[in-house]
């Protein structure tokens, strides 16, 4: 991944809110789909507090403009692979940094508070992985104290298919699902509202150029299949999950809603923040040949955080409580490139706009746990909030927000925005 | 489900090959999407050895014609629910039985050998269930001899999400997938071609009118969500499955290909063949309230068969070997209505064109086993073929074909056509 002039830390934008912006300085330039009054769904770029309407600046984009950007979803643009994305980034960087362009495109800026964000792509298939080894260990320990990590974990990037139809963009209310749960002491299960509603802090990976059915993606080409990254919250009903998941895996415990943040942060934007290290300890089994190799720096140097705000906290003006903070690379046993290559290794076809979740990204640290199941030790150690409230799992009115930010010496930090949801009973 | 004049056993068609046809007499009238020389993908109806081009007879269909039938997929028509489907059936029955209509629509008939069939709908999500209790018991016994059926089985219609992108219409070559397998005696897994490739005899259910996210489908309304039925083969790599499936369920062992037969046989066509009995023994726990009720006759009186033809059998002119024969209702512990209601019971949204597999439909009889895993007892008891060949699992060159047929006293039998695939190495 090349680090080029678009990452120059001296670069500033004439969109003043971009300079020093937590998420969207001119070094980021993430893509998304928005609508606004009088504007149907269309492609845009986040810059500071604004969205830049791409079709409105088609002429200024010149050769970087493509008809695929005139669609109400980004699937077509994703399908084109990296080159057009790089060209668009380079041109946007020029347009938004050189004040000479201000008059030409300023009218295409719309305040983020005035737009509605949508899913960036039609999700053909959504797959959720389980590459957070500390999460897998923490959860495994609750079910199998003596043998938390199954024998396949260090060979197979474990994943399963999720539900595409219920993927929604950040902000969608989280309706507490009903389902079967079986209390340990009960003879038979009962059907009703979940009592153990949880979040899972994850990254979402958007597939760009995919593969044909029957044709694997070699590890050396996996990076070319990644169109970008969003935040992802795999809302989970733990009581439904515990009762239903054997032998075929999670189903209704997960498929009532999956939330993603609306902005797709490109591999180009993340280039300065990739790392060579990730959570595979020295001495562990080497990956099998088909999973070995790939980029020099496949690890994601993104610091992720989760915040909780209860209804009482909102009423009392108490600031959101940070539930966790940790670096994705410290959580992930398998890289995104390995995930992609493994997914296609049997010939399964990935398609532009497919969404892949990493799985819950917990670090080894006590303050780096990516779900309440882990934080409360399965409900045994409830969390005490600043209001005096306790939480083992999410209650109605709770708001859960995930963020991620990339920092590196000598570069301007960027962020993924946020993925949030409020629970309703 | 009403049995009306379209089921009159005295009804014959002026399309002579329809009369006495194994699958497609005038009492069936299944819908599909086909293309032919000079004809782009379009909706058609199978009648005898022919396909009736629906857009070509729009005028003759009169009020039964709808713009949704002019699409290259049936999702839009499925979304309309049962009423337009019934009206179309009634009108087609008239047109194809009364010889007075012959001159008017005969030119819209195309020989089935001259068309290419396609998936009837864009599959938004594909879910595979596990409602074949004898299959679940047979497979469970191989893993857990003392405890073959898990405690949740008689309460939860077990299902998991499959891969939508790799669903293909019957005839698609089955490319033997590669993947990780771990021989029992080996220290570490190896990556390579699957050695335990299997089929699974299933029914596919096409969703018609779906539900909004967050709004369950009551059992009394579940039948209205079913647009029709196809045959489904959930090709499975057993060696990959055994190594990867814990704890999140099957993934690469299944998602390299799922085959469905092209014709959608409607609930209306199956009305005379539905039964009150299915594979839930008296004395078993009653379904929880949300799964209780529904139609008086929710069981599928379809006799399903699987046939194997090896390359040597083809060369020697040996007839296909029937591997199994059994009635779906004798295999299914949960009805399709219960499947649909359970799937949406947490608010998960089903969409028109979604595909649901029943899971492998094995009966309790020795000749009613729906997979080679069961027939060969996990490879311990290979099958000897008429050629003297042995089979524990599928070999390259093997052709596997599934059929299903509905028969009932006083009615003309109908069939679902066939779902077939040849294995390539």
Automatic annotation (TrEMBL), chains A, B:
EC number assigned by the record: 3.7.1.2
Q: Which residues belong to any copy of the Fumarylacetoacetase-like C-terminal domain?
A: 134-423
Cofactors: Mg(2+); Ca(2+)
- Cytoplasm: present as a keyword of the record? no
Keywords, sorted A to Z: Calcium, Hydrolase, Magnesium, Metal-binding, Phenylalanine catabolism, Tyrosine catabolism
Question: Which superkingdom?
Answer: Bacteria
Domain Fumarylacetoacetase N-terminal: residue ranges: 27-120
The question of whether Hydrolase is a record keyword is answered with yes
What pathway or pathways are given for this protein in its record? Amino-acid degradation; L-phenylalanine degradation; acetoacetate and fumarate from L-phenylalanine: step 6/6
What's the name of the protein? fumarylacetoacetase
Q: Which organism is it from?
A: Sphingomonas swuensis
Task: List the gene name.
Answer: fahA
